[in-house]
Amino acid sequence: MATYFFIELWHSTLLPLLSVFLPSGLVPANTLLPFVLPPAMPLLERAHQQLHDIGAAYSAVPYDLIVAGKALATSAIVRGVPVVRRHWLLSFWASFLLAYGDYSLPSLVLQTDFVWLKKDIILVTFAICWWLITYCPGDIGYKAFSFKPIKVACKAASGLARTNVILSMVDAAVKHFGPHLIVAPLFIGTLSGCGGRLIYGAVLFAVAPSACSHPELLYPSWYSHSAFLVSIVYTLAVHWMAVCSRDAAYGAIATFMVAHSAWEAVSDSHLDPSAPLFSLFHSVLRIPPPPAILHSSHDAPPAHSKPRESDTSAPASDSTDKQSPGTKTVSSSQPLGQDPSLANGGTDGEGKASRGEQKAFRRPRSKKA
Fold first, then answer.
1. pLDDT tens-place string over residues 98-153
2. What are phi and psi of 37, to 5 degrees?
3. What's the whole-model pTM score?
4. Tally of CB atoms within 10 A around 232
5. CA separation for the pair 311, 309 (Å, rounded)
C-alpha cells in the first residue's frame, strides 16, 4: 500500500515539480509545467549528453584490465595481514573472497551463475596477480604496485568494478522481483557493493580476531555506505523516476567512485564522504553508533579496584619454617604434580629409587630378645 501511495504521489505532485529541472523528453510531455525555464533546458540536455558519453567511455574499458586491477588491489590489502600471509591457502582464499564476494552473495540470493565461473580468464588472472603481490621473489610485484601511477590505476579499476557490479545487480533485482518493490533492489545493490568486505571480515575475525578488530558486519564503513547510497540513487534516477538514462547515471556514479578510489590511492588515507550523513542518522533516530572496540571495557573490573581478601596470600606461619627432617616441600614455582623425585614413575633419572624412598620403604630391624 505504501508503495502505491508513493508512486501516486510521485506522478501527481513530485514529478511535475521536478520536471522544471529535467531535460525535455525524459518525462512524459503532459507532466511538464508551462513555466519551464527555456534557458535551463539546453544546459541540462548538454550535461545529460556528456554524462551519457562518459558512461559509454567507461563501458568501453576492457574487462580484463578491470579484473587485473581489482585483483592487484585486493591482494595488496590482504598482504598487509601477516597472520594471513603465513598460510598461502588462507591468503589466496581471503583475497579471492574480498575480490569476488561482491559478485557471489547477490548471485546466491538471485540464484544466478557466479560471474567468476563464466570465464576462465578471471580465476587465472586473479591467481597470477595474487602471486605477484604476495609471494613474488624480491617483492618485485608489490614494489611495482606501490609505484603511484600503477597503484592509482588499480584502485580506480577496483572502484569501477564496484560500480559495475552494484548497477548490474540492481538491474537484475528489478528484473527478477519487479519494478514496484523498494527493498529488493536496495538490498541486492548494497550486498553487491560490500559482500566481499562482509565475507572477508567474518573469515579474518574467525581466524585471527586480533587482526580484525572492526569487521564490516559490525562496523559499517565507506564500502557499505557507498553501496547503499549508490543503490538508492541509481534506483531512484533510472527505475523509479526515470529522470535519466542508464548510461548517464552510470557515467555520474562511476566518475564519483573512480575519483574517490584514486584519491585514496594518492593520499594513502581513507576518506568517507558519507560519515556526516550517517552521523546525522544516528543523532536523529537516537540509535547509538557501534562502540570503538568490540568488547567493552565495562565488562572487566576497574584497574583501581582493591583485590579481594581471598586473592591475597596469607602470611606464612612459623610452623612452615620448622619441618621435620623426613618431610619434603615442593617449590611454588613447580607445577602441581611435577615433583622431581616422582618423575619417571617414582624413580630418578637412571631408573633407580631415590635414597629417601629407599629409607622410607626399609623394614625396621627387629630387636633381639
1. 999 888 888 888 888 888 888 888 999 999 999 999 999 998 999 999 999 999 99
2. -75, 115
3. 0.68
4. 17
5. 5
